[in-house]
Amino acid sequence: MHLDLSVSDSDVSSFTPLVVLELADDTKAEAITWLLNRIRDKQQNGGAELLVDQVLLPVQDGQKSNPNVFVVGSTSQRLLNGAEDVGLFKESQDGTMRGFTYANRESFRDFEGDGQAFLSEAECQYIIKHELDTLRAKHEEHVPGYPKLKLYPGKSVVRRLQSKGVLVQYFPLHNKEDLKRLSFSWYKKIKLSFQPLDDIRRYFGEGLALYFGFLEYFTFALVPMALIGIPYYLFDWEDYDKYVLFAVFNLVWSTVFLEVWKRCSATLAYGWGTLNRKKAFEEPRPGFHGALGINPVTEREEPVYSSSKRQLRIYLVSVPFVLLCLYLSFYVMMVYFDMENWAISIYTENPNVASGILMFVPSIIYAVVIEIMNLLYRYAAEFLTNWENHRLESSFQNHLVLKVLVFNFVNCFASLFYIAFVMQDMVLLRQSLATLLITSQILNQVMEAFLPYWLQRRRNKKVHKRMRRLMGDKELPLLEQVQLEAEMNTYLGTFDDYLEQFLLFGYVSLFSCVYPLAAVLVVLNNISEVYSDAFKMCHVFKRPFSEPAANIGVWQLAFETMSVIAVVTNCALIGLSPQVKAYFPESETQLILIVVATEHVLLAFKFILAFVIPDVPKHIQVKLDKLEFDSLEALKKRKILEGAETGKYME
Amino acid sequence: MHLDLSVSDSDVSSFTPLVVLELADDTKAEAITWLLNRIRDKQQNGGAELLVDQVLLPVQDGQKSNPNVFVVGSTSQRLLNGAEDVGLFKESQDGTMRGFTYANRESFRDFEGDGQAFLSEAECQYIIKHELDTLRAKHEEHVPGYPKLKLYPGKSVVRRLQSKGVLVQYFPLHNKEDLKRLSFSWYKKIKLSFQPLDDIRRYFGEGLALYFGFLEYFTFALVPMALIGIPYYLFDWEDYDKYVLFAVFNLVWSTVFLEVWKRCSATLAYGWGTLNRKKAFEEPRPGFHGALGINPVTEREEPVYSSSKRQLRIYLVSVPFVLLCLYLSFYVMMVYFDMENWAISIYTENPNVASGILMFVPSIIYAVVIEIMNLLYRYAAEFLTNWENHRLESSFQNHLVLKVLVFNFVNCFASLFYIAFVMQDMVLLRQSLATLLITSQILNQVMEAFLPYWLQRRRNKKVHKRMRRLMGDKELPLLEQVQLEAEMNTYLGTFDDYLEQFLLFGYVSLFSCVYPLAAVLVVLNNISEVYSDAFKMCHVFKRPFSEPAANIGVWQLAFETMSVIAVVTNCALIGLSPQVKAYFPESETQLILIVVATEHVLLAFKFILAFVIPDVPKHIQVKLDKLEFDSLEALKKRKILEGAETGKYME
């Protein structure tokens, strides 16, 4: 069926291509026909009512390239209806954010003519993704041509094709012009300025924009701490004379920081219309499997997997595995300390340059090992969480995040805790902290941005050359773009980025009172992080589908937990400081009791503070209340009118 | 206008009277006419569309009784519409709880004929209250006859009349038959059984039913602890040998107890239809005042009081006042200890019976003083919170609860903490705990139930006699009932009842490891509490308006806070116990560090447990999800149909 499409741009220019759909190159023709028909079919008939066309990529170096690549687009009318389906919030004429409805389209700001420019491209792509995801099987028993790909009424077709590898991938296309404009205002300007969060959100969606917002906020919040840290470091206050003050500052800072972020994030999310948007019903994730049963919520047939079985897997396999890994991590830590001692003993025997350098070797090796262990553990955690067979993507993510967080936390901080509280050696603590921080930052930047960029550039050049060779000088922007982007790496979400920030937050809030330069290093790292992350989003990865998000989700909890641990750690560090000890020369017991009491009071204060500071700024809360009030009033009015009519009929 | 109503039952029997409205006896006739018209007026015209009639009470002992007493009722059609207004949830034919709508009335279980028996009496009274409360001024500038009682469009008429004392009170009438049936199944049966929570809810509403449910749950939860406590006490394990075990039990118990209650409460609230019911927009409370301005949410004119002024009042007056009271409470405590020492010194000088009894006198006096201080403080807190001028009843209540809780906690427990941790005298702790517990229980039962009951009975007899004298043998059930109930005390809500349970929970969870009989005493107290509370609800107080509630609200938080404090206290008590100390004969420091570490682990475990246990049982969650899914699907279907129609038009 795809043979009648010639390789030319004119065929696919009948609509703006937004999303690319790549099927396996050996997909059976009847399955393709069926899928395309379902995508094109009217909504009343259960179709997605989208436009779809084939992109026939040229033969490459004698090898036939994958012929089953399609681009999907839509009419603007269909997109507007879709915007209503997904529950998009838009700014209305009176300045409040309201759920978009096609019937009231004229009451929204920026709605002009037939609404062609009303939705951003990312929104359009998100809508198309939603419509594809919710394209459901009707009465087909299996995918045509694939008797083993069972279907049941209500099953998402795309999820099923995806879970069996027939659908290789689907991704939104970049928009070169917008991208150029965005990347200029984002990271190519020489003038330092805030990030263009609204533009980022328009291009990449709310989830990513919130990440960059958080990154920026975190970096700015660290500046005062960095400014205080520099004189501490420069004037070499090695006698820990002032670090009690610094610890107290740390403690207040880490609490206020997170509470204020919640308010900032609510303000951003309100402006982007995600704060009060209702969550849609979540589909089972593609990998979810089980015997066919009845879902008690939807009353549709779907795979069912008993939650007690999942609990068993979690508590009998995953939890012991995580504990084993933690034990391993401790073991590695002890080996590191042995190495450290060995290096010191060599240095004390032969204090020369070589043995002086050797002193740093164990720390560097340990930092590298930590990174490797984190990486390996990450794969294991993904495998295990997958095997736990969670029904929802969100619950899969939560379990994955939890596993990875606990391990990363222990792996990265165990040695520091050991040095601080068991060995009580503040000089070593400072040295280890510096080595860990610097090594992991360098590794991160290399692994995260430069390596993928370098690989990507090589690939780009190859594709570009090949296309040139095949097509001569004919302009083939779309074909080349599809070809290029299909081979780009997929951005796996903000997980790793947040994880990195989480660990940096840990270094700063837990121990920066012994190494005040930590905040400075983190600020520097984050400034380069903004640029490298921005760069990688624009040039290294496929464009990700925009992800509506009202907050940073489970990460808020993770950061808050860290800040509670920070209170405990800082109090303990204060208790260990020589000049506090000097106040209680006779009774160590009294010192400990006072430190513990202070810690409890601070923790209580922290919880009260978190309770007292409202999570949503007042002016946003008023708008939310107004929205709710208006809808209640409208409902009431309608009822009274209906009541009056009923009354008339009865009289 | 009320002169043409003769004192006879026939006039008011045209409808079932549900609510009594009592205006001041010098209310101007034009105001009464206006109010009655507004109540009777159709909804389209902004009226409440209710039935209202005058009850003319007979002349009493030469004094004219208040002529301005009215009974309010309604047609069942109006009540069903009202049920939709207030967003009542009812069980539908398929067993799920759904928001009642008049249009779908046939799809609800128990809806028969014209739906006369569909709503419970308490629900009808609640609906009438809601309709009266939301009866709003139209274009009147003031209440007719009262130029000073300013009105503005949208102001609740009833609230305004209430705030200026023109409306003395309004309350629902008891239903003698239902009450007899309820009180029989509740507390008059000899057979021990669970309380009839559903019947209580049907008669008194969800708020009260949840209180009694909590009381029952709490009492049952205490039984295992009481059972363990008895042998501890009987076999005189005075050497504190076993109390480490008891403290650990205590700790786990207090965490699990509260988590499980959340699930129980969710189950109850779901069955009663309050779990997923939307909250209506809250009116300003009657006492709220301020300059007339525009409410940004409703965009209606209403009194506005700047929240920064309120904050100033809270932080500059209320907080210092509370702190002063706390200081006073400490001062009284120190005086108590002086008295205690004095009593002991007398006993050691002259050990005879009189001085032996004298030993107990300071504790008893202190217990009485504590109760008196609590009472006085309560008035002060109410005055202050009123003066803070909160706009909403809910925020008023929260601030009041917070003030009272903090003071009561310190007032009741300060001496125990002092004895336990400063004096470290476990014998005295045990003795004080017993005295405090027993004295406060006796005082409570007397103040709460027997005294009001006795007063009430005297009043009842007087009214009964008077009525007899006036009317001879004529039967005047309604008149007498209105007269009797109007003079009954008003039930001020569950505040004091929860507060008492909160303090009892404190005694048990904080210190019961030193006085294991505490749990036994609390169980006994609570059994009698159920009876006396049930009795007072049925016979001492006016029937309260039913209060829809999905949970025990701020009290859940209060109990949880207490259980966190309990972890700290129990760990400290364990640390102080001689046999734990015996393990660390040399190093007290090590002991303290281990206790502190244990405490931190336990607290972390507690938070994880609270996080892991879902707040809503799975079968309820499924039903909630189903409801949401159904409404989403219905919306989608409607849109597709509409879309199809639009499509047709466009074609």
Query: In DSSP terms, counting alpha (H) and pi (I) runs of 4 or more, how many helices of chain A?
Result: 21
Supply the helix-strand structural class of chain A.
alpha+beta
Classify the oligomer: homodimer
The percentage helix of chain A is: 55-70%
Uncertain stretches of 5 or more adjacent residues of chain A: 1-13
InterPro entries (chains A, B): Anoctamin (IPR007632), Anoctamin_TM (IPR049452)
Protein name (chains A, B): Anoctamin
GO cellular component, one term (chains A, B): plasma membrane
Pfam families (chains A, B): Anoctamin (PF04547)
Outline the structure in words.
The structure is a homodimer of 651-residue chains. The first copy, chain A, has 651 residues and is of the alpha+beta class. Chain A has helices at 9-12, 29-40, 76-85, 121-133, 157-163, 176-188, 197-204, 206-234, 243-271, 307-349, 353-358, 361-387, 393-423, 426-471, 477-487, 495-511, 517-540, 554-576, 578-583, 588-612, 618-650; strands at residues 19-23, 51-55, 69-73, 89-91, 97-99, 142-143, 146-150, 167-172, 291-294, 301-304. Helices cover 64% and strands 6% of the residues of chain A. In chain A, the strands form 4 sheets. A 4-stranded antiparallel β-sheet of chain A has the order 2-3-1-8, sandwiched between helices. Chain A has a two-stranded antiparallel ribbon with strand order 4-5. Chain A has a two-stranded antiparallel sheet with strand order 6-7. In chain A, a hairpin with a 5-residue loop joins strand 4 and strand 5. The termini of chain A are far apart. Residues 1-13 of chain A have low confidence and may be disordered.
